[in-house]
Structure formats: structure tokens, C-alpha cells
Amino acid sequence: MKRYFSQVATGLVCSLTLAAASTSASAATDKAKLVERLQDAQAVITQIMAAPDKGIPSSILAGANCVTVIPSYKKAAFLVGAQYGQGVVTCRTPHGWSAPVFVQLAGGSFGFQIGVQGTDLIILAMNDRGLQDMLKNKFKIGADAAASAGPVGRNAQAGTDWKMNAELLTYSRSKGLFAGIDLDGSVLSQNQDDTRVMYGAAIPFESILKGNQATPDEARPFVRTVATNFVQAKDENK
To answer: What are the residues whose beta carbons fall under 8 Å from the beta carbon of 184, sequence distance 6 or more?
Structure first.
């Protein structure tokens, strides 16, 4: 009998060891995907800033409180469309730009187009109210937060009333073309699973974006790229 229980205990230990190893490997794989997402987001910012005449006006960059980058936002449609993407967001704090929060953007669309496309998206919070929206764990663009397709170009003069009313400015890049985009109806929310993988715990959205969390080494290149471009724009518009 003792031998039987010994064999059971040994088997249980082996199973737990294998499960732990599997979980560890899965976490490593998940983290590698998050690092890749950060690298993709960094590349989107770098590439858009490399073409100032066709990018986000420096006056807008200078005033942005938060920036969300969603690389390769997917939109598929077969009568009823669906949209989904994963990205990262960072906000200005008194001590620089915050560590990133991992987010997901989901929405729906109706139409008769058939196909799938990937689009890079950028969402900028332009005032205190937009910042407060970004600090929420979840909000609906256009309903909870007023949004507008952002103007493009170095010398673009926003002939609209976005300066007074738009909390968020939204942009897209597809096949090399960069333009404002309407994201009304889409829902932006924190991806708590990804946050747990990167930070080791489901740290609240607001705490990270207020600068209360140290930036992980893997995220520093992305945050540095945002800071370099947005701070430079602010200096140019003093």
C-alpha cells in the first residue's frame, strides 16, 4: 500500500512539475508576443514621423496627453463585419511618459464588402477629458469619448472644431497611406491578461498610466521613441 501511495505521489509531483514547466513556457511565449507588439508599435511611430509632410502635425503631437498605437488592426467583413486589434498606450506624466498599458480595440461594422485588411491605428488624447477617458479601464469611442478623424500634414490647419470638442484624434495607416479615420462605436479596454504577463500582476490601468509603475526594460524602446518624437514636437511649438 505504501508503495502504491509513493507511486501516486511521485506521479503527482511529476505532473505538477510538467504543468509548471508548461505554464512557464506559455508565459515566456506570451511575453515574447508582447515584446513583438511593442516593437511593432515603435516601428509605426518611427515610420509615420519619418514623413512629416504626410504625418501628424507637430502642433497636435505637442498637445497630446496620451498616445495609443494598435499595429495591424484587423477588419474582416462578410455581410457583417468585425474589427479587432491589440496595442499599447502611454501617457504624459510629471516625470515623463508612462510605462505602457496593453489594450484591445474592438468594434463592429455592417456592409457588403468581403475581405480582410490590416491597418495601423493611432489614437491621441488631446485634453484633460481625453486623458481621463484613457485612464478608464474601458470606454466606447464616440459615446463615452468624443472623437474626430485627425488632420494630416506638417502644415495642416484643422478647419474643424476638434480643438474645442474632440477629446480623441484618430489616425490610420494602410498600404503606406496615412489619414484620419472614424472609429466611433469601437471599444477600447485594458487587456488584463497581457498586463499580468508583462508586470506579474493585473495592475490597474490608471495606476500605470499615471506613472506609478516602472517601465519594463522590454518597453523602454517604445516609450523612448514616443517621448523623443512628442517632446521634440513640443519644443518646436514653443
So the answer is: 141, 142, 143, 147
- Cα–Cα distances in Å, from 175 out to 44, 117, 189? 12, 10, 26
Contact 32, 95 (CB under 8 A): no
What are the boundaries of each domain within the chain? 43-236
100 to each of 39, 164, 215, how far by Cα in Å? 12, 27, 7
Q: pTM score > 0.70 for this model?
A: yes
Residue 82: which of 114, 39, 44, 121 has the closest Cα? 114
Per-residue pLDDT tens digits for 172-228: 887 667 777 778 888 888 888 999 999 999 898 889 999 999 999 999 999 999 998
pLDDT in tens, 70-102: 987 655 444 444 556 889 999 999 989 999 999
